[in-house]
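Hallway conversation turned thread

IA: we were arguing at lunch whether anyone had actually written out O-methyltransferase end to end. Turns out nobody had. So, for the record, here is the sequence (226 residues) and right after it the C-alpha cells. Reply here if something looks off.
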Amino acid sequence: MDGYFDAVLGDEDPALAAAAQAHIGFDLPDIGVSRAQGKLLHLLALVQRAERILEIGTFGGYSSIWLARALPPGGRLVTIEWERSFAEAAAGHLERAKVADRVEQKVGRAQDILPELAKSADQPFDLVFIDANKPDTPEYFDWALTLSRPGGVIVVDNVVLGGAVVDADNPDGGVRGMRRFHEKVAAEPRVSATTIQTVGAKGYDGFTLAVILPDPDTRSQTPDLP
C-alpha cells in the first residue's frame, strides 16, 4: 500500500531519495520517516503557514528537506542533531535539495541547545517536530511548549514502538519515555492532542499531534489557527 500511494502521491525527487538512503552509509536500519510521513509533515507545515520550524533529531536530513520546502520566503528551520557524522551527512543532502539557505543546523545535546534557543529566540516556533532519542521525549515536549506560540503544532514520531507502549511493565527506556510523554500530554492543560497508530512500509508505529491552545480553558475547543 505504501508503495502504491508513494508512487502516486509521494513527490520524492533525487535529493529526497538520496537523503532517504542515509542509513545505509551508517550501517543502520531505516530509522528516518517514511515518504508518506515526510509528505505529511510538509502538508502540516503548509496548513500551519509555518514560518519558523524546530526539528529535534536531524539524522540524514530527509524530514528536514520536507519541512524546509514548506517554508515561505524568509522562513527558517532550526534542526538539532547530537551525532556530528549524521549532521554532516544531512548538510550535504540539504545542499543538494537547495534548502540549506533556510536551515540552521545545530550539533550537540538537545538538552543543552534548547535552553540556549529559549534565551536567544526572538520569535516562537510555529511547528515543532520531535524525532530523537525516545527516553528524553517528555523533556523535549516540555521545551517544545516553551518555544512555541499559542496555536502552534507539535508532532512527535515513533510513539507506538511496535505496540510496546501499551506494556506498563516494559523496562525499555524508549517505551518508558513514551509512556511518560503521553501521561505528560494528558495532564497538560495547554494542549489538545491525539495519537494515531500507523501500519506501513516501516512496520507498526504511530505519531502524536498536539496543538497548543490559545487559552487553557478552551482545551476541548478548536483554537483559531492562522
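OS: looked through it. Residues 2-216 form a domain with the Rossmann fold fold (CATH 3.40.50.150).
IA: good, adding that to the notes. Residues 158 and 206 are 6 Å apart (CA to CA).
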